[in-house]
């Protein structure tokens, strides 16, 4: 009996040792769960003990109240911070939030605390799928004072748009392009900044599908898990009540891409004199820089293995002609590597961030969660990566921003972009990887 008991104890001890050995060898998943748990405690403490910052919440509630009372003229939907400047999806989602919270701040903070944790969990999942960042560097995703504040102390709509964007990215990673486009449209309907992801997303769609498939996805139709149900999401449908009643007012307010932000509140380009900052010439120069950088990265980086951007477009046109000539309705799709999808999306958005004329403090949420990924994609030493990350966080916590913090932020952004430019591009399609990328993943 004693012998059996001793044998059982040795067996259990062996299993325990094997479990801990496996844990030490593959620590990323347990560390991710520990990170989520620790951050949930931190969020709870912030809500409980850090005072709420009144900025836009009252304005949101005023605009929603006007909408719920029957106002459909966007020019009449206003708050104490000004007129409503977001698409109709913003009104729908904040109407639901007002219904759930009664318009009260504290319940809304709890709701946004859950939203923060959901977004963090989605982002951590993306990082686990890509396996670009070492396990310990996942902790960087929870170290931003500013991002915690944006979510649970200020309740900005950027939080909802960002979370939906990350959810759309997961759908795209799993090659669910139509579903991803629907979720992406939902994010755009809350805040237009999500359109910074549109150029790289369109390029990925062109690479993964034929032209017919791209058009179908852009139309917003989705077939879910081979079922016969289709659902169509269009920005025009979301805004239909406003388009039918006051179309000019809705389009001019909700989709005003030429809106000039106040120089004082900008975190970037603060070193530029205000008269130049608000000028059309400065805006045009940034737009040209944005489009040029996108084209350069698309041609020389994202489409490098296909022979360049124009080669990709030409091949798709040839495919379409052959499909029409053969009268073959079957699509010619290719599966993209997860790393290639995430890199293209994150870098494309980052280029837009660099070239944005004005970045308000809440806009940090637009790209913060991509920073560790971008830093580890660049061929920097770890110490430099951490210093660059800390520098970006420092700049976003200087209030009010000044010329020095603004110059520092721009310099750090350009260093990161330069690192991404000289990094080795991953092979875009499933079925073949470079030896270098494979060895890097094994090392991690």
TrEMBL record:
| Entry EC number(s) | 2.4.1.258
Q: Does the keyword Membrane apply?
A: yes
Please give one Pfam family short name.
Answer: ALG3
**Gene Ontology cellular-component terms listed:** endoplasmic reticulum membrane
Q: Which domain of life is it from?
A: Eukaryota
- EC class of the enzyme, as a word: transferase
What topology does it adopt in the membrane?
Answer: Multi-pass membrane protein
What InterPro entries does UniProt report for this protein, alphabetically? Answer: Glycosyltransferase_ALG3 (IPR007873)
> What keywords sit in the KW lines?
Endoplasmic reticulum, Glycosyltransferase, Membrane, Transferase, Transmembrane, Transmembrane helix
> Where does this polypeptide localize?
Endoplasmic reticulum membrane
The entry lists its GO molecular-function terms as: dol-P-Man:Man(5)GlcNAc(2)-PP-Dol alpha-1,3-mannosyltransferase activity
Q: Does the keyword Endoplasmic reticulum apply?
A: yes
What parts of the sequence cross the membrane? 31-52, 84-101, 108-128, 148-170, 177-198, 204-224, 231-251, 281-300, 406-424
The protein's predominant localisation is endoplasmic reticulum
Which reactions are catalysed by this chain?
Answer: an alpha-D-Man-(1->2)-alpha-D-Man-(1->2)-alpha-D-Man-(1->3)-[alpha-D-Man-(1->6)]-beta-D-Man-(1->4)-beta-D-GlcNAc-(1->4)-alpha-D-GlcNAc-diphospho-di-trans,poly-cis-dolichol + a di-trans,poly-cis-dolichyl beta-D-mannosyl phosphate = an alpha-D-Man-(1->2)-alpha-D-Man-(1->2)-alpha-D-Man-(1->3)-[alpha-D-Man-(1->3)-alpha-D-Man-(1->6)]-beta-D-Man-(1->4)-beta-D-GlcNAc-(1->4)-alpha-D-GlcNAc-diphospho-di-trans,poly-cis-dolichol + a di-trans,poly-cis-dolichyl phosphate + H(+)
Pathway the protein acts in: Protein modification; protein glycosylation
Xref: PANTHER family: DOL-P-MAN:MAN(5)GLCNAC(2)-PP-DOL ALPHA-1,3-MANNOSYLTRANSFERASE (PTHR12646:SF0), NOT56 - RELATED (PTHR12646)
In its UniProt entry, what is this protein called?
dolichyl-P-Man:Man5GlcNAc2-PP-dolichol alpha-1,3-mannosyltransferase
Species name for this entry?
Nicotiana sylvestris
